[in-house]
């Protein structure tokens, strides 16, 4: 799946009320930052997304001129 397909699939899942946690890495280092929240760790992100989906009706997601940029692997930082 390309990055653009992933973003579009996320939006589709959001609109359909489907689980969003599968779009995040299962790691304690996962962080999701929203307008009024900061969720830490995969379990925290999954729980927060479930609660958000449970308490929100009629999701509206629109993207105009969606642009997704795919970059190569991140360079490793120099260690000493």
TrEMBL record:
This is SnoaL-like domain-containing protein. InterPro entries: NTF2-like_dom_sf.
């Amino acid at each position: 799946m390309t990055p653009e397909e992933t973003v579009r699939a996320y939006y589709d899942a959001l609109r359909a009320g489907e689980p969003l946690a599968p779009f995040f890495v299962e790691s304690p280092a996962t962080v999701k930052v929203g307008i009024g929240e900061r969720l830490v760790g995969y379990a925290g992100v999954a729980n927060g997304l479930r609660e958000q989906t449970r308490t929100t009706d009629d999701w509206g997601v629109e993207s105009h001129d969606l642009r997704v940029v795919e970059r190569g692997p991140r360079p490793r930082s120099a260690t000493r």
